[in-house]
Amino acid sequence: MQIENKRAVITGAAGGIGQAIAALYASAGARVFLVDRDAARLESVIAELGAGHTDQVHGIALDVTREEAVARMVDEAEGALGGIDVLVTCSGAITERELEDMSLAEWREIMGANLDAVFLACRAVFPIMKRQGSGRIITVSSQIGQRGAPRFTHYAASKAGVIGFTKALAREAAPHGILVNSVAPGPVLTSFNRDLRAETLDGTEAALPLGRAAQPEEIAGAALLLASSPHGDVFVGQTLGPNSGDVML
Ligand SMILES: NC(=O)c1ccc[n+]([C@@H]2O[C@H](COP(=O)([O-])OP(=O)(O)OC[C@H]3O[C@@H](n4cnc5c(N)ncnc54)[C@H](O)[C@@H]3O)[C@@H](O)[C@H]2O)c1
Fold it and tell me: Which SUPFAM superfamilies match (predicted)?
């Protein structure tokens, strides 16, 4: 198997896409350490994926925007798995607001959830991967970071930031054998968008060239490719777009 016995940390693993990535990785023989701040949902994901394979699935509930919590996440993951070969940063948050009505607090909340969290997790795993002389980091950005969308200046800026961060870190990390890439999904059928306005959600799927949003499982394959060897071995600083055709680069 392409990622058999690899040790992967996945944030946002109680969410739709993170859970799908965790399930695909585990089914491909990876050992996973799952992280989310939603303790109840995380517990049930760990129980479901870990049934019969308790050594394969571990996790911890914490807030990945907090520096000390991320340090703890990496310590616990290293302790449970014996090292970290793959990091997937999949946690994220979204709200909807016209620029004029957006408070600095709301702006910062979204930047913190989507960008600070990626910085903190990558910085924390980097020394471990460097010591190992290998690693894979997969950030989850968004097609909104590539194309923009009205009432999402904060979300678009944070996700465009993730893509820029990914490219810069990819150049810094590749000489150490660490490959850094991003997955930028289009609309995906999870509860992520549940609080968005009806006018925003209406017609979204019809506007896509494919005419439909994705299921989380259809996003997970891109994260598997980027973690796998040999098929993912020469992706460096790329942003893969499983997005139903919303953005074409
Ligand atoms: N669903 C979509 O349409 C879509 C489209 C493009 C990109 N994305 C991105 O995909 C990623 C996953 O989204 P999803 O659709 O699975 O959403 P989701 O809401 O199902 O999952 C997100 C998870 O992240 C967790 N989380 C949020 N903030 C956290 C924090 N500070 N600390 C720890 N955990 C935290 C939540 O508890 C939740 O379980 C996000 O980064 C999102 O921006 C989603």
Answer: NAD(P)-binding Rossmann-fold domains
